[in-house]
Amino acid sequence: MKKSITIAILLALILAIAGGALAKETIIIGTVVGIQESLINEFIVPALNKKGYDVSVRVYTSFGLNINTDTVQGKTDVNFFQHEPYLKGDSVNSGKLEVLWPVASFKMGLYGASASVKDVTSGGRVGVPNDKSNLQRALKLLASEGYITLKPSFDAEVTADNYKSHIEGRSLKAGDIIALDQPGLKAGFRTRYSAVVLSVAVAYDPDPAKSLFGLVIGREDNSVTDGFVNVFVSRQVDLKGQDAYSKKILDLKAALKGLTEDPAFLKILADRYSGVVYVPGAK
Amino acid sequence: MMVYSWQDLLSSFRILLGEPLLNTMAIMLGSTLLACLGGIPLGVYLVLTSPGYPLAAERLYGVASSVINILRSIPTIILVILISSLLYFRYSVYRPTDFALLLEAVVMWAIAAIPLCARLVESAIKEVDKGLLEAALACGATVRQLVRKVLLKEALPGLILGITTLSITILGTTVMSETIAIRTIASRAVVRATIDNDGEFIVSGIAILAAIITLVQTIGTKAARHADKSR
User: Is A124 on the interface with B (CB under 8 A)?
Assistant: First the structure.
């Protein structure tokens, strides 16, 4: 009896050690719900599995600096939710992080709540994001569509607290533009129109024309969107791949490079998200 | 941990003490008041219909109680989104002003707070000594007199403390107010600190919220003590 217990324990120990040795390396990717998450699950996870890695995706419900902090602290190996300007604005973490690979651009657009309301100046309100970087982008979009003009005082420090004094109404009054958080913009109940990164709306329905908001009234110019390429961000990587972390991150980088140059992937993006999600520079 | 300059901290105070403070106070005081208008009668009704009280009706109590339980289980934010979806039709009738948007928010928060208010009122009134109740009934008091002159009067200190708790709970839920475009102190502090990388807002936001809560709680405690003495 005693003997069999001893053997069983020994066996369990051996199996545990062997299992630990045989376990594949895991890459933990931090991302946010929506299009970023589906891109990772659909394309990046299979590519990494092929290279022999296990991938665990940690999905955050809203974007924020804590995702970068988690990457710095090692809770995630890489993250994919932000564009380069946002990373630069994170003064606490940006020194410890670096851009691994740019993946895709998500266009910002102006949506009407239903197909019947096309005249933005018809008495509704326009919702813009309440965070600094997306707010400025949305206001620039409204300005380029000719609804408002940006005063000369409009700069990188404009936030949801003071944007009304930095813009001048044209066909839209400054008071018609209100700042909401992402759930509020998506629900669209407070406003007739919303300016959001189109990927947010695309996440509801792959076809932007049929998405939640019904109608795209205006969209950002490619030259603007290209400044906001969403990038994979990792901790500092040793380019020779000496340590375990650098080795797997370099493998991830190679996989991302392969993916963004793969014609099949580009074709899927072009077909499914026509002009909304795209790899900059690709034909 | 970041170090902030004094200027940043001061300007964050200046921003939060403007419109966000007004919105916060409007939601906190306005919806506490409105929630009391709905919640106190509901709480009294709950007490009167519960077993052992003059209008005891087990079924009615059960129905009211479970409706309140269900309403309390809906998170404030979901209730707020539900109500604003019902209000969407207004755009075909009129364009709401800024003040109307704030007023809608106050009403939404009040509706979300009514069930909690009813429960707090119920527990405050049930603290009243049952001997008093029996004495009043033996003297031939009507239910109306009983409620007004015995139950509410005797439970006043507990009611005041309960309402103080209610208003502080409402203050806590204003953190998600930007879903309906109302900028409050808590929501601004969270957005500016966790997304916009202006960490000083967390410091000033907590300082202002702490000041508000201390003030409200002090007033509530003092008023309750006063009511207890002059009963």
Answer: yes
Give CA–CA dist A123/A257, Å, rounded: 47
Indicate if A27 and A50 belong to the same structural domain: yes
- CA pair distance B38, A145, nearest whole angstrom: 47
Reported CATH class of domain B6-229: mainly alpha
Q: What span, in angstroms and rounded, lies between the C-alpha atoms of A196 and A162?
A: 19
A185 membership: H or E segment, kind and range: helix A182-187
Q: What CATH number is given to the structural domain containing A190? A: 3.40.190.10
**What would the pLDDT profile of B18-57 be if each residue is shown by its tens digit?**
999 999 999 999 999 999 999 999 999 999 998 888 888 8
Both structure tokens of B222: 């003092």
How far apart, in whole angstroms, are the C-alpha atoms of residue A48 and residue A78? 13
Strand stretches in A84-228, DSSP E: 97-106, 108-112, 126-129, 148-150, 167-169, 177-180, 193-197, 215-219
Residue A283 lies in a domain: no
Per the structure block, which two tokens stand in for A87?
A: 């990373």
Tokens describing residue A53: 């890695």
- Residue-level pLDDT at A204: 59
| Domain end among A203, A219, A235 | A219
Per the structure, the count of domains in chain A is 2
My answer on whether A99 and A114 are in the same domain is no
CB-based contact A189 B176, cutoff 8 Å: no
Nearest to B196 among A132, A190, A191 (CB): A132
CB B19 within 8 A of CB A162: no
Asked whether residue A94 falls in the same domain as residue A119, the answer is no
- Cα–Cα distances in angstroms (integers) from residue A251 to residues A48, A62, A127, A206, in the given order: 8, 28, 41, 30
Rounded to two decimals, the ipTM of the complex is 0.81
Residue B193, both tokens: 């600190």
Domain closes at, from A174, A189, A219: A219
Q: List the domain range (segments joined by +) for residue A81.
A: 2-106+227-278
What does the pLDDT look like over A202-217, one tens digit per residue?
665 555 555 555 567 7
Q: Please indicate if any CB of chain B lies within 8 Å of the CB of A123.
A: yes
